[in-house]
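Lay summary

Proteins are chains of building blocks that fold into shapes. Our project writes down both the chain and a compact code for its shape. Here are two examples, one after the other.
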Amino acid sequence: MRDDDIASERPGVLVVEMRGEPGIATVLRWATVLETALCELPWPRLLVIDLGRLDFLSERGVRRLCEALERCRDRDLPGCLVAPPGTGVERVVRHTRLGDRVPVFPDRLATIVAYQPLEVRWLSC
């Protein structure tokens, strides 16, 4: 089997839902969950990081997101963010220009519709 055959067999999406207020312990938990999720790959063809339930997004949180998305790119796995419009998290995403690095969608449905996956897995942290 060739590498491009394997890539075409990656049918689904892994959704990682971030929650709460990201203090140091939470950011460390995110890093662990994201790294574990990435180690389970390559089965998905997309990683969606849903920021919709975050109370706040710090600079450290933005850096961790960038690192996770960079690891995705290194593995030829596209990643994107969900940041609901009008929220504090969306304003941070906009001000830090994360949208220049990765696609940002207003909700999960818009993300799923844009990529039209065959299978979706949800992972809350």
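And here is the second example, written the same way.
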Amino acid sequence: MFTEIERDADRFLEKHPDAETFIPDEKDGQAGHDGLLQLMTLLHNGHVNEARNIILQAKAEAFGCMLQAEHGSSHDYILRWIDRIQA
């Protein structure tokens, strides 16, 4: 079992030697929800404006965010966070 995991990790690192900058493809729906994994990766790597633009484009295209909370969606939360750190 662990041999297979090690092989998978080795293959991943061969394809993506700088794992810190890897952004998963979420189009198949298996890597995350609503592009959140991609957004978190962008934010982690300092691409704040790109993350903001992705969210604003999704909102303009009426793309609904699946994760909803009392104070809005996860996209709304991220936009508020971006506004706060850029203030």
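What can we say about the second shape? The first strand starts at residue 68 and ends at 69.
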